[in-house]
């Protein structure tokens, strides 16, 4: 019955926690680290909050149901979820990872996990041959992030999962950009879904959190062991805030994605915009594949202006978005990847990843799309004027 309901209905059903004692319509915030045991020998379901807490459980059950998985896990941040997932690997194991993976994931692979003997190869995951060639006898996981950050490259989840199964390895998918509203990696064959719930799931730039959903009992059991052992669990109040964020996820991300589509189309025809990266645009190289595995281009797009000076002029003349790192919030967030999310790459590495010095990333919020477009028109006019000034002064 539950699966025949629309996603927006399920979001509400899965997060509604009528309290049997009081009838409260919301899951109570169980701020308790420990739990009284009624029996000397037989302990109850809960004993200590690192191991389990009823508020966190409600969130973990909700995300598991929404992603269509066996069991969900809430962590103190997206990076805590991703790091704990990589602890499923052991010394001598190998991971195939996208070249343009999220910077924090790049950092733990290159600077932490290597010290413990966990190896990795970076590949262009949009190219299946490159993935296949990187697989070794000790490969344990193929890691996918689609669409990728900040150039929105699309990887074929079904094909990667098939390839992984043929080589007896797992597929992990970072589903932060799409959320289960638009993309369900487990249904496409993935084994584990990861989220920075700091982004769309929380949705209000007020929580740092991570979620993981296991597609099999085997991974679920092992991940539960690691979550409790490593202890990077999400706090109780933050668990409650995520349950609250989830309730409006569908309306928020759909409205933002509709606006993002319009804004991408607007930027695509502006003479001062060299390129727009958005999988909802027909000329995006991954558009067809994306439409096959996800139901929307999402709420994040990037666009390339001429150079750093143009990007600076644009940022200095917009009024509505905040200029900040992060994404997936009610307010639009404009960011400059070369100095923010991808500051750790040198210029050559950035160029290779397609991150030009004029690239800006926009996470579209809930402002009216017409207001945003008008704001961007004004900022682009300033970019244009500034270019004329430079040309003239160069005469
Ligand atoms: C933000 C982000 C992360 C890291 O999550 P935190 O909550 O910041 O730890 C991982 N993957 C993607 C795609 C992200 O955008």
Report a brief summary of the structure:
This protein has 395 residues and is an alpha/beta fold. Helix content is 39%, strand content 14%. The protein folds into 2 domains: 7-244, Type I PLP-dependent aspartate aminotransferase-like (Major domain) (Aspartate Aminotransferase, domain 2); 251-394, Aspartate Aminotransferase, domain 1.
How would you portray this structure in words?
Its cofactor is pyridoxal 5'-phosphate. InterPro entries: Cys/Met-Metab_PyrdxlP-dep_enz, Cys_met_metab_PP, PyrdxlP-dep_Trfase, PyrdxlP-dep_Trfase_major, PyrdxlP-dep_Trfase_small. The protein has 2 domains: about 5-245, 3-Layer(aba) Sandwich (Aspartate Aminotransferase, domain 2); about 250-395, Aspartate Aminotransferase, domain 1 (Alpha-Beta Complex), CATH 3.90.1150. The protein is built from 14 helices and 12 strands. The protein has helices at about 5-15, 55-65, 80-85, 105-110, 130-135, 155-165, 180, 215-230, 235-245, 250-270, 285-295, 310-315, 345-350, 370-395, and strands at about 70-75, 95-100, 120-125, 140-145, 170-175, 190-195, 210-215, 275, 300-305, 320-325, 335, 360-365. With about 400 residues, the chain is of the alpha/beta class. Strand 5 (about 170-175), helix 7 and strand 6 form a beta-alpha-beta unit. It starts with 6 loop residues before the first helix and ends with a helix. It has a 7-stranded mixed sheet with strand order 1-7-6-5-4-2-3, with helices on both faces. Strands 8-9-12-11-10 form a 5-stranded mixed sheet. The model has no long low-confidence stretch (mean pLDDT about 95). Helix 1 runs antiparallel to helix 2, helix 1 (about 5-15) packs antiparallel against helix 9 (about 235-245) and helix 2 (about 55-65) runs parallel beside helix 9 (about 235-245). Pyridoxal-5'-phosphate (PLP) binds next to helix 3. Pyridoxal-5'-phosphate (PLP) binds near residues 149, 196 and 210.
